Structure formats: structure tokens, C-alpha cells
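Researcher: I've been going back and forth with a colleague about how Cohesin subunit SA might be arranged in three dimensions. Neither of us has a model we trust, so I'd like an independent prediction. The organism is Denticeps clupeoides, in case that matters for your notes. Sequence below.
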Amino acid sequence: MHEINRIRTSCCRSVCIDRGVPPGSLCVHRDSSNESGPGDTVSYSTLSVSELDDVGDTKGKRKRGRPARSTAASKKPRKSPVEKLGPLRGKKTNGVAQQNGEGDPTTLFEVVRLGKSAMQSVVDDWIESYKQDRDLALLDLINFFIQCSGCKGAVRIEMFRNMQNAEIIRKMTEEFDEDSGDYPLTMPGPQWKKFRYNFCEFIGVLIRQCQYSIIYDEYMMDTVISLLTGLSDSQVRAFRHTSTLAAMKLMTALVNVALNLSINQDNTQRQYDSERNKMAGKRANEKLELLLEKRKELQENQDEIENMMNSIFKGIFVHRYRDAIAEIRAICIEEIGVWMKMYSDAFLNDSYLKYVGWTLHDRQGEVRLKCLKALQNLYTNRELFPKLELFTNRFKDRIVSMTLDKEYDVAVEAIRLVTLILQGSEDALSNEDCENVYHLVYSAHRPVAVAAGEFLHRKLFSRHDPQAEEALAKRRGRNSPNGNLVRMLVLFFLESELHEHAAYLVDSLWDSSQDLLKDWECMTELLLEEALQGEEVLGDRHESALIELMVCTIRQAAEAHPPVGRGTGKRVLTAKERKTQIDDKNKLTEHFIMALPMLLSKYQTDSEKVSNLLQVPQFFDLDVYSAGRMEKHLDSLLKQMRFVVEKHTDTDVLEACSRTYSILCSEEYTIMNRVDIARSQLIDELSDRFGHSVEDLLQEGDEADDDDIYNVLSSLKRLTAFHNAHDLTKWDLFGSCYRLLKMGIEQGSMPEQIAVQALQCSHYSILWQLVKVTEGSPSKDDLIALRRVVKSFLAVCQQCLSNVNTPVKEQAFMLLCDLLMIFSHQLTTGGREGLQPLVFNPDGALQNELLNFILDHVFIDQDDENQSMEGDEEDEANKIEALHKRRNLLAAFSKLIIYDIVDMPAAADIFKHYMKYYNDYGDIIKETLSKTRQTDKILCAKTLILSLQKLFNELVQDQGPNLDRTSSHVSGIKELARRFALTFGLDQIKTREAVPCLGILGTLKEYWSLLHAHRHSYLEKFMTEQMMERREDVWLPLIAYRNSLLTGGDDDRMSVTSANSSSKASSVRSKKGRPPLHKKRPEAEEGMEGSWMMRNDTLQTPGALQTPQLTSTVLRENPRQAADHVPDQDSSEAGSEPDYIHNQQMQMSWLGQQKVDESNRKDRSGMNYMKARGGGVRPAVRGLMEDDAEPIFEDVMMSSRGQLEDMNEEFEDTMVIDLPPSRNRRERAELRPDFFDSAAIIEDESIVQGVPF
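Model: Here is an independent structure prediction for Cohesin subunit SA. You can compare it with whatever you and your colleague have in mind.
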């Protein structure tokens, strides 16, 4: 039978050739027998559309529910266009719908675009018109697809009857709008988004309504599939995009029809078997015959649906899933995922999964995203896992690697897919695969972290034993189901060596593990109760980690927003989220009001644990204390806090206590009085102790022992920590601190820690006094008193700058900068003119001391830094901390310059270090330069010039008057000048004032492009005849600069001339690649350097003054030589997509490229049809057309070791859609070959980057 079919097909093709029908029209050859084998396909040959009836009648059988097909002899002649006027949508002329004069939509496209009518009624109207005259109805449908592509033309009845498919498409291509490349599927706006939905819905409803009769008439579906196949093969992107979407939705609808047929076949088979198994007397033979006939008809219908699906899959999908346009590829992958989920028996096998697996390596994130979502729909159904086992084994590594995708959306979906794989089979993922996902819980991108948290929850924290869970459900605390899970969470946190951010871990698990993270009762019992016999005891590290995690969960529940670094800011909570936040806050408050004092009592000697626990009251609902009559627990908390203050001198612990007291003392709560009394008692005791210890220390002087020093230091640390958040001015701490500082300055023996704390405490005291003055109505005496205090403290700080101890000097410097900023002229702005007596302006001596401090302590080499650290060996962390401290010092001084507190010329000594210390302070110096330029451009320019002068003078002092102008030091100055020149911007007139003031004019070659056209005459005003006649070496920079202006102007004119003369020669290069951006400037600079060399040769200066390579904004390269380096892109293979020509990441290995070339040569031999079609298109429409005859798929989709031959095979070699047989059908499903050839797996890792932190 197969041999007969092959002979018939060959004969039909011969007949087509004898008729002289060129390629491009539709011809359908069908087996006239009732049997249908695996090899039955729908093939496209060379008959025109008008000849479909003749060919379709070769199958002379009639099927139930379908209109009878008339033979060629009895066929009625076609009606004239006038006789075929249908009742569907108004009047038509030559088969083209016209407006009815009332503005109503008259075409399918307009009806679908407006979407005012239900698709069901629209399709029913079309079916009614098809029954009356199928030619005109099909013409309306053809024009619908043409217009949906954005084409302004329309197919007329004469074209439909007399022209070939290729000619029709070529004609429609010429009708495109030449002014715009947009078409309905790409147009923005909600209207066109709705159109896309209506377009897809129309196709689905059309097939659903026609599934019982019309789709089997061998006319409508053949015509539509032929049209869509031709359009999908077009060079016009709009045609290809629209027809591919239509074809894929058409295929989806056919898959649904095939699924219904399969279900009906199974039901019919069951009825037949049931009837046949009855006894002979009860068996109804007529019913058996009807069931047999129905089964036969369903079988024939299914065979026809298979042929249609084969035609779409092999004619459109296998070409367009590797289209050059990412959106078209995404459509194909999205729909094949729908087919595999909808009809898994037919499509969920290696033959189709391989396309999704290959496309996981697509270059565009949009396509990779569609692949992952398609696979998620499959892995969600656990019944499909056996069919996905081979695919999982082959592509698991690629899916896991995509969790690090550079596109965050793709990474999120990849993690979710890995989670689904884990749920289906825990053995599918190795420990290494899981670890690759674990560390993503610390990602800075919250969606990635949350997805990884879901994976971690499924892997480690999900309970798999329902019986054990039910037994433990009634238990609470440490014996609850969460007890072991909390221990596991702590262990995971400690073993996370890459990150130590508990807040990030909690936030990642918050959405998936809230029940675990909010089980504070379990956590506190694990911390408070002793371990039971046989139970593992929590170690010190585990307890610290658990407390840190617990505090992070409390903060997350109370604040209801991610930690700093995740998210763009606090979003507005919904009503449900707000209610959850309030409930959680009440729950944690009620629990920790009683538990926190016990925890503080147990861990009161451990500073790390206590500092974390003291943060808990900051998240309380403090009204619960009074509403719940829990004042006794408040007293217990205050008692424990007092013990903590008395036992600890660690800064973190004391500051945590200070913040907690400050929150508990809020005036809005009724407990304020009780807390204020306790705080005052504590401060009184600390103040008295501090006062007595200070008196003892001052009296003993140099004879003070360690106990005296410790008493002063411990009391001062506690008071300083509290003074930060509380107003302690009534205890007059400033006087005692000032006396300590004066004694240290006079005697020079004050311990550095006491000096640092005294400076800080005095600073807080001054700020609290300023707050009182600004908030109230101060008298003149108050202002004078505060000014006297500030002046005396500034003098002390200035004297401390010469202290031998570095920490004291740094503290004094920071406080000086802060106070000068606070008490500057900006203090009187905003209607506060009365505070003018408090304004302090630093004198020149203080400014010089501050600048010298920066030069001595910030701009130092590593060796100098090690010496200043008294020889202590620093590890990497200490080095980073020291650098951070120096950056803070520089930033504090830079603020004084920016806000005009310190004179701007002082910045010259900072700007000159821009290049040398670029890695450490480049961002700070650059920002300072930017802000000062906004303040005063001229003064800023002069400051830059001054910095260059300083560098040049230092170089002269080091090397003497005879400089080696080719040395690296001179080149460094020129490079710095080039960097400065880039900061001037394009405002040439404003920047011209300062440039001639430069003393080292040799570097001004970098500046000449900034000056205006009359820059030479401007320079002449500054030059005298004596200056022009000097010939000593020191005057060479001025002469060279003057000559550069002269030759630069000439070179400008020469460059224009040369550019005009060479415009023709460079036309080819300008089409293929961008010419050098600075084409004229290198020539001008070349002439400028030539004049420099000539002038220097005339003067006979020692040494060749060769300009270093990188001393200007462009490389000094011959433009002709640069042009020679432009790659000749004419040699690129014809047909490549222009979007990918310049992307080096798309280049494959040499061996892979050779195989691609060989495969492409095979492809081009089968593309004559395409080229013949595209030859007559007008050049004006080229903006809508691709350059290649067969759009090339991106090479990331190709194998690096061998081509995927079945991706380029003809229809006869591609697989045939073979629906699974029913129980009554012969067994056609054979074992498929392994389509996951290792050569087909793409190994492009360019998509994957580092962890998105």
C-alpha cells in the first residue's frame, strides 16, 4: 500500500509539472484507501488553489456529518462575483468588503479589532456565509489574515482564482505602509493588546465550531494552511510573525479536536466491547454495525487531523522555532508546551521535548523564559514524570545553571522549575545541584531569593511523615514539629560560609516558612530550657545564631517589609497585610514581654547575645503593658537592663540599651513616667560616679593608677552612649569632659580612650544645647554662652590635631568638620537669622591644619600606613576597615569645600591625587569636583590649574630644571590634565577664562579643543613681545601651546577638506560599520605634534620630546591605518540577520562554523521557492523585510560539535505526528529513537553570569 501511495504521489507531481504550474501553490494528495499508516502526511506540491476541487475529489468517499463532495463531472460552475454577494457584512465589490455608509465594521479584521461582538456570533456568521459561498467566505478569511499583518491591500476574487499563492503574497507585500514598520501585533496600547487576544480567540472558536464538518471538506483547512505556510516563510516580518501566531493557535485548536476524537474513540470502543460481550440473544447487531461505522468514521477523521497537524508542524513550526525574531521563537515554544500538556499521550515524548531542550540555550531571555514556563506546566503534573525522566537527565544541568541567569525573571522561573523537579523526585537532583540553589537565598534580588527560599523549604523544612506530624501536632515548644526544624535552620545558617546575613535568610524564607519563623515559643524554649536526656545540646555558636535569627524574624513581622538592600523602598501595605502585621506585633509583644527578662537574665554576661536581645523591645506594641496590666514585667525588664548597663562597657551593648530606654520613654505611652524615673536614677548614679572618678584622676595627675583610669573610662563610656539618644545637659557633663581634655593637652598623658570618649561626649552636649536654642526662643545670653562653649571646644579639637595618638587626632578632626558644617552660614537660613552669633568661619590657620591632616593621614602609601599602625600586622578585613576610615576623613573635609566653608583653592592638593589614588578615593574626588564646578566654574577651573601647577613644581623640585619630558611623571601630569579637560563640558566660553592662567602650558594640548574659534587671539592678550622672544627651556610649554593653537586651527580646515575629498572612498565602509568616532581630531593633533617637534628641533632642546601614547582623548593613530583595521563585513555570509553581525558572542568555533556552512549549503538548495517569491518585492518595503531568504536561527541554538540534521531536513525526513492508538486500532506507536543526541545539546554558557547579588 505504501508503494502504491508513493507511485501515486509521483504521478501527481508529474501531472503538476506537465500543467506548467510553478512552485508556490497548494496541492493536496491523499490516499484513496480507507487505511491510514504512519507515513501518511500532507504534502505541498504544485497545484494552484483553484484546482483544489479536482484533486480533492480523488478521495471519493463520503463521511458522516459532512456535505457530499461533488465529482468533477457534476460540479457546478463557479458563480460570478455579483451572484456571490453574501449577507454577512454589507456590500462587497470583487469580493472585497466595503463600508456600508454607516461606519459599522464590514470586515472580519474590523470586527475582531473592535471586539464589540462575541466571537461565537462572529464565527457563526462566517460559517453561514461559507455554506452559501465558500469562495467568498474564504476570501474574507484570507483578507483577515492579510490585514491582521498590517497590510493595506486586499485580495480580490480575481486574484484568488487566477493568481498563484506566491504572486498573491508578493502583491500584498507591495501594499505595506512604507512609512512605518509597526503592525497590529507589535503596536502598543491596550487596544492592540486586546486585539491580540481577540485574534487568538477567533481562531480557536473557528476550529471549535467547524470541527464536526467543515474542517473535513478538504477545502477550507487546506486553503488556510497553505496561506499561513506561505506567509510564515515570507521575508516580511509582519507576515511571518502574524501567520506563525495564527498557525500555532490553529495547531492548538486542532490538538484539542484530536483529543476529543481520541476520547470518543475510546468511548465507542468500550460500547462496542460491551455490546459484543453480551449473549447472542441479547446482542443488538444493528447497534454493533452502527458502532463499527462510527468507530471507522472517527478513525478517518483522526487521520485527517493528523495530516493537518503534520502539515503545520513540519511546514511552519520546524522553521519558525528557530526564527531570527525572538518573539516568533517564543510563540512556537509556548504553544508546543500547550500541546504537550493538553495531549500528553501524543506530544509528550522525546521527539517534541528536544525542541524545548535546545531552546533553553536561546540567546534571548524572553525565549528562555517561555521554555521554563512550558516545562513548569509539565512538571506540575506528577503523572507525567515518567515521560520526562530522560529529558530531566539530559537537560537537568542546563536548568540548574539557569538559576544564575543574567535575566532575573529567567533565574526566578529556573529556580521554580528546579523546585518542581525536586517535588516530583528527590533523587533527580544531586547535593551539588541543591547547593547551587541554596546560596541564592542571600541574593540581593528579592524574587530570586524568595524562589530559592521556597526550594530550601521544600528540601529541608517540609515534613514528609504525616503520622509523625500528627503525633507531634499537639505538642508545643521545643517538642513541637518545629523544634527539629529550628535546629536545622540554625545549622544551615552557620554552615553558610559565603554569607552571614540572617536578615536576608529570614526574608527569603518568610513567604514559604512563616509558621516556622513565627514559632517564637519554640525558639525561646530552646534557649531557656535545659536539654532533655538524649537531646542534642545547643552550643554557644548555635545559641548566638538562634538569637540573631529570632530577632530578625521579630523585625520582619513587626515592620512587614524586606531588609535594607532588598526592594526599592517601603511599599504601602494592603488591608490584609496590615491586619496580619498588627496581629503578629501583638503576638510577639505578649510573648516576649514575659520571655525577654528571662532571656536577658540568662545571657546578661554575653555582650553579643545581649545586644541582639535588647533590640526586641523596639518592636513591641507598648500599649500592651498598660492594657494587659503587665507593669510588673516592665519593672523586670528595666531591672535587667540596669544590670546590663552596670556589667558591660561594650559600645554596641550600651547603645542598644540607650535606644531601648529612648523608645520606652516615648511620651505617647503611659509607661513613660515609670521608665523615666528608672532612667533618671540610672543617670544620676552614673553621673555621680563619673564626677567623683574625674576629681580623683585630676588630683592624682601623673600618679593615677589603672583603677582610676578604668573608673573614669567605664563611666564616661556609659554616659556617652546615653548622651547620644538622651538629653543629659542638666547633668553638665561638658564641664567634666572639658577639664579632662585640657589636662590631657597640658600634660600630654591622657589615655587615648578617655580623650576620644570625652571629645564625643562634649560633642553630644553641644548638639543638645543647640537643639534647645533652635526649638525655643533663646535670649542673647543663651546664644553668647553657647558660642563660648563652641569656641572653646573648637580650640580644644584644633589642639588635639597635634596629639601623638592617631585615634584622638582622627576623632578631633571628624568633630571639627562636623561642627564647622553645623555652625556655618547655613545655620541662619530658613528664617533663623537670630542665630547669626553662633556662625563660625574657620580662619586660614585652621584651614591649613585641616588640609595638612588630610595630606598626612589620607593620601599615604601602604607602607606608610603600616608604620603609622605601629607595625601591627593587618589582615584583609583590617585593611578594608582602615580604608573605610580614611574615606570618611576625606569625605568630611570635602563637604567643607563643597559648601564653601573652606576656600576652594584648598581642594587643589586633593585634586592632584586624583590619578594616583583613583581606586581608593576616585569617586569622592570626582563628586567633589562636580559639586564645586556647579558652585563656580571659573574658580573650579583655576583650582584644577593650581593642582597641575603644584604637581609640576614638585616634579621640578625633584628632578631639577632639566626635565625629561618623556618620563612617566610628565606623562602622568598630562593624563591628569586630560581627565580634568573632560570635566569642563561643552561650554567653551565660560571655561575659556581660566585656561590661559596655567603655568605648565605644555599640558594644554589636552585643552585646546575646549577653546573657542578665537582662542589664539584671546591668548595674545596675555602674551608680551618679551615672552614671545624668549627661548629658554622654561618658556617651551608656552611656545608649544601657542603653536598648537595655530596648527590646530589649520588642521581643522585641512581635516574638513580631506574629509570631503575622501567621502566617496569611505562610503562603503560607512554602510557596513561605524567609522572612527574621532576621525578629524587625530589628524589635527598629528599636525600639532609636528609643529611641536619642528619647534623643539629648531631650539635644539635636549632629548626627543615624544608624546606618550595615551595623552589625549583619542589614540594618536593614523586614520587610514585605523580604517584598515575595520573588518570587511561584506565577506559575511549572505542571509545572516543584521541584528547578529556585530555580536562576537554569537561566533561559534571554527569546526562548528564549518559544519554550519555545510548545513546552510544544503538548506539553500531547497529554498528556490522562497527566493523566487521574494525577487519582485519593491525596495521601498525593505524596511519590513529580513535580509535572509530563510531566516537564520541564532547560533546559540546550534550544536558546537555538530549540526542538528533533523532541524534542516525536508518534510519527508521529519517526524510524523502519530496520535496514540485506541484499544481498537492497530498498534502504531513504536519505540522512538533517542532524540537527545549529545551533539544536539548546546554548550553556550555565555548566558550564565555570577550570582546576582
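Researcher: What would you highlight for our discussion?
Model: I'd start with this: DSSP finds 53 helices and two strands in the chain. After that, consider the following. The radius of gyration is 42 Å.
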